[in-house]
Write a structure and sequence with these properties.
9 strands, TIM Barrel, nine-stranded parallel sheet, 12% strand, 12 helices, alpha/beta, Non-ribosomal Peptide Synthetase Peptidyl Carrier Protein, Chain A
Length: 304
Amino acid sequence: MIPHNQIFAAPMAGISDLPFRTIIRDFAPDLPVVTEMISCHSIVGRHKNCLRNFDDYSREGNVGAQIFGAVPDLMADAARILADAGATWIDINMGCPVPKVATRSGAGAFLMRDHKLAGKIINAVVRAVDIPVSIKTRLGWDDEHRDWTDLIRIAADNGAAWAVLHGRTRAAGYAGVAVHPKPENMPIPIIANGDLKTRADVESVIEQGYAGAMIGRAMLGRPWIFGEILGTGAAPDNIGSVAMRHLDLMVEYYGARTAVPMFRKHLAWYSTGMPNSAEFRIKINGITDANVIRNEILQFWGCA
C-alpha cells in the first residue's frame, strides 16, 4: 500500500477550493491537499471579494496553502496569515505558466528566470513561519533553459523542505506529454507532477526516486482517485450522490447565484464517459437555478 503522505492533490486554479477539497477528503481523509494559488496581494489586503482569503484551514486537516507573488516581504506576510489560519505548510508557486502571472506579474514560472529573486522569496517565507515551506516548479522556462536542478538547490539552500516538479517547461504549458527526469543527487525530496493518472503511474515515479506524486487533472470528475491509488477506497456506486453533495457544498460556500455556474464544469467532468453525457452537458450549460440543476442530477444519475 502506498502511504497517504506520498500522494498529494494538486493546486488547480478555479478547482481546488474548499468544497472540492472537502469532497476529496470524503475518499482520502488524511491526504495532503493544496489550495488553489492565492495572490499575496489579495491575502495581505484581505480582499473581501475573494472567499479563499478567509478559509479556516484548522478545520480541514492536512492542507498546504499555495501563494504566488514577486515581492518577498508581501509573500512573507501572506505566509504568516495563512499559517495563522491553520495551514499545515506553505507552498510557493514557481511554475504557473499563465501570462498574467508568469510575465505581467513577474511571479509563478517567471521565478525560473530570476533565481536570485526566487531565493529571496523562499528565504523570506521560510523565516516568516514555523511550518514547512515547499515550492512547485517546472523543468524550466523552455527547452533551452531546463535548469530545474539549479532552482531546487536554491530552494534547499534557503530552507525549503521539498519541491514539486511538473514535468513540462513553461513554454509547453499543458501540451504534450509530461516527462519525469530522475531526481538524482537532489538535496531535498522531489514530488513528481504531470500526467499521473493511475496507481501504476505513481509507483513508476517513486521507483525512479521521487518521494511521492501529485495528482492534478486526473482528479477532475474523479475525486475518489486518491482512494483508488492508496488502496483505501473505490469509485462510488452512484456518482450522482457525490455530485449532489459537491453542489450543496458549493452553494453553502459561494451562494447559489455564484455556485451554480461554477459547478457546471464539475458536472461535465463527473458525467464524462457515461451514456447520454453529451446531451446532459448541453442541457445543464444554461442552468442558473440550484433546484433545477439538482433535478437534472437526480434524473441523470437516478440518485436519492
